């Protein structure tokens, strides 16, 4: 079975700053894959490479067996057109640290927007699904609210519903709870846990070690742009093999 | 002391329960300076009014000519050319702003050139160039269409091109600033959902940039209403031209300028009110509650005026 995400020697640099220095990993179908590491370790950058928000400089990145951002013919790589990249992104949902809800639309309109605009769905179909998704994240009664009228935790749950509305096969979470007040983190994690139980493939960049341990199937510890250690979350978090992992965990646990 | 502090909010916050707190009755700060300033200003205005009443002005002519058919036709023409030029300017502004920000070096250079030329030369000169185009191109020949330039370049078209293309250059800079004011995360979120560049611009970025674009655009339109008086240069029969026409036969020169000024003031005032509501509309989502309209303020004041004394909450 093809892995959902496959990275082979992925490098990324911004000018002189070499952020990713050869990432190799595989995310299996239906798996909750957690990425942890100190800030600046490249975990967010790697996540953004998966849906081509960032272009990689070297290596290969596949989602569901398909090369991200390029087409390979023989041994030549061709850049995909913007419209083709957009087509690839349809199937990959993303949740951002800062929510990035569309502030000029209500919660409901936020969730309906992409299915109508991208998939050409009718309003009725999109609305029906959007209402169901808002119910699922526990915000059925907030459908008519604008993002500025919602708390951070509520906004993030709307953002998750918005991503799910495209019925993706893969969900990317970029530190989804880092911008939240502590008492709001639980609600968002509950939604993510529920999503994991439904069998969604998820790649999660997080500082929530509890979530990683309970819900995660695999865990990777990154530092300095490389994968330092990987394995089952329970093993890595309780019996880290590398000194760098030990040092990091001793600070955050 | 601490006892009191603890008690007051506890009894006050759930309004209906218990006895209402006693409202503060204090003597407000007296602003004597304001009174002095107001009296001085009124005195100065009275002197100015007196000076004008003694001047050689036939005041009766002003209301008499205010609704003169010539004036009203001129007024209508001014509105037409201002709205048409502004519409052209807006379309060009959005187009060239998007082109200016494009990754394509050809389109961004074209936009830069356009802005450079049309913002860098006086609009009066541009009007004259359009109007006199027949001097260098007597015949307009664009393949499928051929005609005398003087027939094509009517005063209206010359005015429209002169004002509209100039406005487009200014609007392009305003729209560009608006687009750049939208958080990058918005574009990323739209792209992550699979939306194309153009759809992201149209559905996500432009609507949000409106909040930044509209106030200066309103300013531009008010400017346009007044700048349109320059179209006298291309024989367009606008409001100022109508006033001058009447002045030249009736010798009521200053009186007719007053008539024109009154209409310009009315136009800009009416538009300012419209702008308030437009800005309010596009503030949706960025403010938790919209600012009240003047009408709502009046209604709220009427409703709560009696309750205010007993510490009513709005």
- Quickly count the helices of chain A: 9
* Overall pLDDT score of chain B: 87
Biggest sheet strand order of chain B reads 1-2
- Radius of gyration of chain B (Å): 28 Å
Query: Which residues of chain A sit in consecutive blocks of at least 5 with pLDDT less than 50?
Result: none
- Mean pLDDT over all positions of chain A: 95
Q: Largest sheet of chain A, described in full?
A: 6 strands, mixed
Put simply, the count of helices of chain B is: 13
First-last Cα distance of chain A:
35 Å
End-to-end separation of chain B in angstroms reads 29 Å
Assign a percent range to the helix content of chain A. 25-40%
Strand order across the biggest sheet of chain A? 8-9-10-3-11-12
Strand content of chain A: 25-35%
Describe the model.
The complex is a heterodimer of chains A (253) and B (314). Chain A is an alpha/beta fold. In chain A, 38% of the residues lie in helices and 27% in strands. Chain A has nine helices and twelve strands. In chain A, the strands form three sheets. Chain A has a six-stranded mixed β-sheet, sandwiched between helices. In chain A, strand 9, helix 6 (182-197) and strand 10 form a beta-alpha-beta unit. In chain A, helix 3 (107-119) packs across helix 4 (123-136) and helix 3 (107-119) runs parallel beside helix 5. The relative contact order of chain A is 0.17. By secondary structure, chain B is mainly α. Chain B contains 13 helices and two strands, in the order H-H-H-H-H-H-E-E-H-H-H-H-H-H-H. Chain B has helices at residues 2-12, 32-54, 61-66, 69-100, 105-120, 123-131, 149-152, 155-181, 184-192, 197-227, 239-250, 253-282, 294-308, and strands spanning 139-141, 146-148. Chain B has a two-stranded antiparallel sheet with strand order 1-2. Residues 1-13 and 306-314 of chain B have low confidence and may be disordered. The interface between A and B is medium-sized, with 31 and 24 residues.
């Amino acid at each position: 079975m093809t892995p959902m995400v496959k990275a082979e020697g992925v490098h990324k640099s911004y000018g002189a700053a070499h952020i990713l220095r050869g990432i190799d990993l595989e995310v299996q179908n239906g798996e909750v894959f957690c990425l942890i590491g100190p800030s600046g370790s490249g975990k967010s950058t790697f996540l953004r490479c998966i849906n081509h928000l960032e272009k990689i400089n070297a290596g290969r990145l596949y989602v569901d067996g398909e090369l991200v951002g390029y087409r390979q013919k023989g041994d030549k790589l061709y850049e995909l057109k913007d419209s083709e990249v957009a087509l690839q992104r349809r199937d990959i949902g993303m949740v951002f640290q800062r929510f990035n809800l569309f502030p000029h639309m209500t919660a409901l309109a936020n969730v309906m927007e992409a299915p109508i605009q991208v998939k050409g769905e009718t309003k009725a179909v999109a609305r029906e699904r959007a209402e169901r998704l808002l119910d699922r994240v526990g915000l059925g009664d907030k459908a008519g609210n604008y993002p500025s009228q919602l708390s951070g935790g509520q906004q993030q749950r709307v953002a998750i519903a918005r991503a799910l509305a495209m019925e993706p096969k893969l969900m990317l979470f970029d530190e989804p709870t880092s911008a939240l007040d502590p008492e709001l983190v639980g609600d968002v994690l509950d939604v993510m846990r529920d999503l994991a139980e439904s069998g969604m493939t998820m790649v999660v960049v997080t500082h929530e070690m509890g979530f990683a341990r309970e819900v995660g199937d695999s865990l990777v510890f990154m530092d300095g742009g490389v994968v330092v250690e990987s394995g089952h979350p329970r093993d890595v978090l309780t019996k880290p093999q590398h000194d760098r992992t030990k040092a990091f965990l001793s600070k955050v646990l | 002391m601490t006892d009191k502090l603890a008690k007051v909010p506890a009894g006050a916050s759930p309004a209906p329960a218990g006895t209402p707190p006693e409202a503060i009755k204090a003597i407000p700060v007296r602003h004597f300076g304001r009174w002095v300033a107001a009296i001085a200003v009124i005195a100065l205005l009275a002197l100015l009014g007196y000076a004008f009443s003694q001047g050689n002005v036939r005041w009766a002519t002003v209301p008499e000519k205010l609704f003169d058919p010539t004036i009203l036709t001129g007024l209508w023409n001014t509105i037409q050319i201002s709205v048409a030029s502004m519409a052209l300017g807006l379309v060009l502004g959005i187009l060239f702003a998007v082109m200016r920000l494009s990754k394509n070096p050809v389109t961004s250079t074209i936009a830069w050139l356009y802005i450079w030329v049309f913002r860098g030369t006086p609009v009066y000169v541009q009007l004259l160039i359009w109007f006199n185009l027949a001097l260098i191109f007597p015949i307009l020949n664009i393949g499928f269409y051929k005609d005398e330039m003087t027939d094509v370049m009517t005063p209206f078209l010359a005015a429209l091109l002169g004002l509209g293309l100039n406005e487009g250059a200014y609007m392009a800079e305003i729209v560009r600033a608006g687009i750049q004011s939208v958080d990058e995360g918005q574009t990323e979120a739209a792209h992550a959902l699979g939306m194309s560049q153009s759809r992201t611009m149209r559905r996500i970025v432009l609507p949000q940039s409106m909040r930044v674009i509209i106030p200066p655009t309103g300013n531009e339109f008010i400017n346009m209403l007044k700048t349109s008086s320059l179209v006298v240069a291309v024989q367009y029969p606008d409001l100022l031209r109508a006033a001058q026409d009447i002045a030249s036969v009736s010798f009521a020169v200053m009186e007719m300028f007053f008539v024109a000024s009154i209409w310009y003031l009315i136009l800009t005032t009416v538009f300012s009110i419209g702008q308030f509501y437009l800005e309010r509309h596009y503030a949706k989502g960025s403010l938790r509650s919209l600012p009240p309209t003047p009408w709502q303020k009046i209604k709220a004041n009427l409703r709560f005026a009696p309750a205010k004394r007993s510490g009513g909450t709005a």
